[in-house]
Amino acid sequence: MDFTAVFSKGGSRLTSSKIRELMQLAADPEIISMAGGMPDASNFPYQEIREIEDGWSDSERAAAYQYGPTGGYPPLVEQIAAYEAASGINTTGQQVLPTSGAQQAIQLVTRVFCDPGDTILVEVPTFIGAVAVFIGYGAIPAGVELDGDGIIPEALDERIAKLTAAGRKPKFLYTNPTFQNPGGMTLSQSRRDRVLEICARHGLPIIEDDPYHDLYFEGKHEDYRSIKARDTDNLVIRLGTFSKILSPGIRLGWMLGAPEVVGRCETAKQGEDACSSSYSQVLAAGYLKRGFVEPYTARMRKIYGEKCRLTLQRLASEMPDGISWTTPAGGFFTWVTLPEGADSEKLFLAAIGKKVAFVTGAPFHVDGRGGNKLRLAFSNSSHEQIRTGIARLARAAREILS
Ligand SMILES: Cc1ncc(COP(=O)(O)O)c(C=O)c1O
């Protein structure tokens, strides 16, 4: 059967990505993978999870195994609102919707906002999983330039004005402002005000995807105050996730924003998965209620901070001249720039030969650039793996640059 004749236009767009093909080469268990953006598997809060499950009442246990409302397990909705309020967000008049990972939240807002051919604005570089959703819906991502302090406000203003003048007014700005995936950079606090002001002036919603904000190793919580915390016009839809503060395996995230938008996402979700995992929702509600999130993230901030510092130190000692990298203040990634004209895909193949893997830069770019960039995740590697992995990467780099 030739299925190509019966695929929808959307289905036909779903071809395997370059990154997936490259990653198949990295399947060898001897390879040290600094590729996936995975939390530290040796430090999941196993003890806390056991304690929560052991303490479930009969009704909690029943709720965990039963279907739940699409709008979410009510105690979890309450706990998420309290968690967001504690970081300075005014949650009054906002709706919280638990989702099957932040990934589903991205998908639901895209479905609610975009028709095929619509333009949306993304950072360059940006989160690859979001781009896959946008393209899947036939939306056209247009890039906004970043520097070490995140989105350049003037570039954003100009880009919106030009696209609008050309009859392509973007539907929203998608931003990952804190310890960005893949760049590791953070949108400065003053720029958050500017980005909000610019989008408000142009009438452009902001999708603020902020999974790493609790995982800072420089500064303090207030230094990463969200765009949503400044939002008085109800312009910002904020996305959160338990993936980095509990476990990605429970596949649980959320969105928070104007009920006109979130309510529609809830309706869209009804036809997609009916409800997110009840088990995960009851677990996550207990995790927040028992106050486990702060001690766990405090522990992980220390662990990730040590791994990050070791990564930067090994890069400085091992890498040949002409290669630079970002110094993240939190999160999982550093973003490496090879000399102009060098090809990170060529480096990837050489690195695989030496048994270390990373993610090449081009797929994170919606404008065809990024061929000399690569993302290095330090989050799920041990210190030993970081040392060995970077020594191998440096040898591969010397080989391709010589
Ligand atoms: C910026 C960003 N958004 C969303 C996600 C997806 O998160 P989740 O596991 O909650 O679907 C990730 C995961 O790496 C991410 O880095």
Question: Could you please say which CATH topology of the largest domain applies here?
Answer: Aspartate Aminotransferase, domain 2
Low-confidence region ranges = none
Q: Which CATH architecture of the largest domain is right?
A: 3-Layer(aba) Sandwich
Beta strand %: 5-15%
Number of helical elements: 14
Describe the fold and architecture.
The chain has two domains: 3-44 and 295-401, Alpha-Beta Complex (Aspartate Aminotransferase, domain 1); 46-292, Type I PLP-dependent aspartate aminotransferase-like (Major domain) (Aspartate Aminotransferase, domain 2, 3-Layer(aba) Sandwich). The protein has helices at residues 9-13, 18-24, 46-54, 58-65, 74-86, 101-113, 128-136, 153-165, 189-202, 259-273, 278-289, 293-318, 344-353, 383-401, and strands spanning 32-33, 95-99, 119-124, 140-147, 150-151, 173-175, 206-209, 236-241, 253-257, 324-325, 333-337, 356-357, 359-360, 373-377. Helices cover 43% and strands 14% of the residues. With 402 residues, the chain is α/β, with parallel strands linked by helices. It is built from 14 helices and 14 strands. The chain is globular and about 60 Å long. Helix 4 (58-65) crosses helix 11 and helix 6 runs parallel beside helix 7. Strands 2-9-8-7-6-3-4-5 form an eight-stranded mixed beta sheet, with helices on both faces. Bound molecules: pyridoxal-5'-phosphate. Residues 37, 101-103, 127, 129, 176, 181, 209, 211, 241, 243, 248, 253 line the site of pyridoxal-5'-phosphate.
